[in-house]
Design goal:
Number of domains: 1
Structural class: alpha+beta
Order of helices and strands: HHEEEHE
Radius of gyration: 16 Å
Largest sheet: 4 strands, mixed
Distance between the termini: 32 Å
CATH class: Alpha Beta
Strand content: 15-25%
């Protein structure tokens, strides 16, 4: 029968494919972090599968901020340079928001993906 995939809950239908959630879930046990700042963003706390706890800190974990944009248009002047900057700043906002979650804290490292 049908079984819900928690990593895909409350997403637009194309998001899991475009943001490569399944590929990420192959290597990491994922926990979705809510709420997010942007509507085109997903944030996960991931622990690599098979990872062994290391002392008091526990298992090493990573915060994944994944965002999608549809506005990467090239223009004749240098105004296109603002788009990547805005996207990276949005990624940093997502990471800062995720670190406020008590399940995340300040210990995990971070990865920002822009799709």
């Amino acid at each position: 029968g049908w079984k819900e995939k928690v990593t895909r809950r409350d997403m637009r239908p194309t998001f899991p494919t475009l943001m490569e959630v399944a590929k990420l879930a192959e290597e990491y046990d994922l926990e979705r972090i809510l709420p997010v700042v942007g509507r085109n963003s997903l944030v996960y706390l991931g622990v690599r599968k098979g990872e062994v706890a290391r002392g008091k800190l526990g298992k090493p974990s990573t915060v994944f901020a994944r965002m999608i944009t549809h506005t990467m248009e090239m223009t004749e002047d240098d105004s296109w340079m603002q788009l990547p900057e805005v996207l990276l700043l949005a990624g940093l906002d997502e990471l800062e928001r995720a670190r406020l979650n008590p399940n995340v804290g300040t210990k995990p490292n971070s990865h920002i993906f822009a799709h």
